[in-house]
Design a protein that fits this description.
This protein has about 120 residues and is α+β, with helices and mostly antiparallel strands. It contains 5 helices and 4 strands. The chain is globular, with a radius of gyration of 14 Å.
């Protein structure tokens, strides 16, 4: 299991606390320092069963500067979104937990983190 975190994020810290309390075996990826490649983002999206716009933090300054709220949300624009997430990792929703069964969850709630633990 791997968890993508921003240490400054309270949701990330909460997820780590729960994983530790449950004795989970996991690795931490500080994705702002160890930026995921477009291929890694595609892989995580496949594991999540989501599209890039589903995990984009559109309220971030970089998102506003890029104007992502106005970008099309369709297959033709998918790569543009993925490239933006890789170029501006602050835009990636957090924390993302990759589960042992090959799936992943956005662990913003205790329920989602527990879901990842059960896989």
């Amino acid at each position: 299991m791997e968890i993508w975190i921003n240490p400054a994020c309270s949701k990330c810290r909460g997820a780590l606390t729960l994983l530790d309390a449950e004795g989970a075996d996991y690795t931490v990826r500080r994705y702002l320092e160890d930026v995921p490649s477009p291929e890694e983002i595609r892989e995580v999206l496949d594991r999540l069963g989501l599209e890039p716009w589903d995990i984009t933090r559109t309220g971030e300054d970089a998102a506003k500067k890029l104007g992502v709220k106005e970008w099309p949300r369709d297959e033709a624009a998918r790569e543009r979104w993925i490239e933006a997430l890789s170029a501006h990792p602050k835009l990636i929703q957090r924390p993302i937990i990759t589960a042992e069964d090959g799936t992943a969850v956005v662990g913003r709630t205790e329920e989602a983190v527990r879901d990842a633990l059960s896989r």
